[in-house]
Automatic annotation (TrEMBL):
Family: Belongs to the DRC12 family.
Chain intervals with Basic and acidic residues compositional bias: 65-79
Region (Disordered) location: 1-22, 65-84
Keywords associated with the record: Cell projection, Cilium, Coiled coil, Cytoplasm, Cytoskeleton, Flagellum
Lineage summary: Eukaryota, Metazoa, Chordata, Craniata, Vertebrata
InterPro entries: DRC12-like
PANTHER family xref list: COILED-COIL DOMAIN-CONTAINING PROTEIN 153 (PTHR28656:SF1)
Protein name (Swiss-Prot/TrEMBL): Dynein regulatory complex protein 12
Cellular localization per UniProt: Cytoplasm, Cytoskeleton, Flagellum axoneme
Subunit structure, interactors included: Component of the nexin-dynein regulatory complex (N-DRC).
Keyword Ion transport in annotation: no
Organism from which the protein derives: Lates calcarifer (Barramundi)
Role according to the record: Component of the nexin-dynein regulatory complex (N-DRC), a key regulator of ciliary/flagellar motility which maintains the alignment and integrity of the distal axoneme and regulates microtubule sliding in motile axonemes.
Biased composition (Basic residues): 1-15
Amino acid sequence: MPPKKKTKKTTKKKPEKSYNDLEEKYRRSILDIAILQDHIALQCESVIKVQSDRVDLRRRMRDMEQKLQHERQDHRDVNSDLSRQYKTMQTELTSKVKRLEKEVSQLKEELAMCQEDLGKEKRERVQMEREKDATIDDLQHKLDNMETDYEKVLHDTLDSLTSQLSVARQRWEDKSTTLHQNYKGLLSEFGLNALDI
């Protein structure tokens, strides 16, 4: 179903009402103008602020570009100085390496000579030890022979001494027995008993 159409009631406006409407519209217009002026003023302030910010940003950008330029120059200077130092160090290091290689070569030669001398000394020491061991063995053998000879001489001497002592003892015993008998006889002549004395 189609909607019902509203019927407009036509009423005639009074001239007083239309004056009020006009005044109302005027006040609204003034209000709108004031709002628009405020809006324009805000926009102007924003534009001024934006322009000020733009000027400030341009100034800061120039400062940053100058700073960047200085830093690039400093970087180039530092880079140049580091390159120079690197080349100097590389030259010094190369000369030091050559000098150390020369020293190593000399030390290797000295080491070879020392090892040769050491081998010779070792061979001589081994030869001396062999000769010393041979001399010691020879002396030990002579000492053993001398010991055996001395032992034999000592035994022979002791045997001879023992037999001589035995003979001497026998003689002394015989002599002492004879002397004893003589003294006993003398004592008994005097009337003394030898066992009492």
